[in-house]
Amino acid sequence: MKKVRAVQYGCGKMGKFLIRYLQEHGAEVVAAFDINEAVIGKDIGEISGTELTGVKVQPLNEAEATLSRLKPDVGVIATLSTMADLNDAFSLFARLGINAISTGEEALYPWNSSPEITKELDQLAKTTNCTLAGSGYPDMYWGVLIDTLAGSMHKLTKIKGSSCYNVEDYGIALAKGHGAGLTVTEFNQQIGNYNDLPYAEISQKIESGEYAPPYMWTQNGWLASRLGLTITNQTQRCVPQIATEDIYSDTLKMTVKKGDVLGLSALVITETAEGITLETECIGKILTANECDKNSWQFIGEPNTAIEVNNPATVELTCANLVNRIPALIKSPAGFITTEKMPNNVFMTKPMHEYL
User: Fold this and answer.
1) Model confidence at 79: pLDDT above 90
2) Which InterPro entries would you find in this protein's record (predicted)?
């Protein structure tokens, strides 16, 4: 059986891990693309810290011609977070009938946030017989892990989750999307002004693209679908996380002043017809020296239980989880197939192509 032939679309902070993880799991990275002049022309081995391959990073405007010629098995998209921003990349792969998977957070479950874009991509992928999906850290640590632990409960009335992560690790688009660097007034005008809107109204604003939802909005949709729950109401509230002293952001290339915004806490509460409430919070901000990434979940019912993951290597886990999803992606039906409909990931002890 031939190796899985992959292309890397986006060679930034995530790309350097994704390229190496693909190679070390037996895939052949046959092309790479980026918009950053600093990496265009570099060998992918130089970017990922592996051996030189002769494969050079190309500008994005060469992607369609190269993909049409190479006809790879899968494209790995590591660029931006929202479906509006990912639409062009997903559409490119779908038009050419190439399976594609993205680290973009909204791509994990965009049916309740960008339904029109997702439906169009789903139809296009079905027409050209390929599969599109999103994966990463939330796929496992906010999704599969929670579903698995819920399976150990006798009764379940509420799942409470909180995840804290450093926006410095994910690039400028994500940091700005979390309000980092804004004043509190600017935050309240741009992000906090949608707090506590009724479910129908906030859903309409999210689905129309007027407002980009917090990650837990889509994550709760993933969990509800995986657990077989029917959503009856959902609210969200975004609260600024305030700097207690000046702190320099390498990602923003600026000093966030004391009293300004380091990021946000976004709390999403989902009520269901089955009587199980999902109460999930993501805290994304510029972390101070004494803070670390943290993931905490509580299961309330019989018996009560809890789990906490401290200081996870979120970037590396995002990339590893996505790479481990690729065999299931390739084997899934055509369309935009969210990962709650796929089997749980397994650690690949053999080369990737042996799982197909």
Assistant:
1) yes
2) DapB_N, NAD(P)-bd_dom_sf
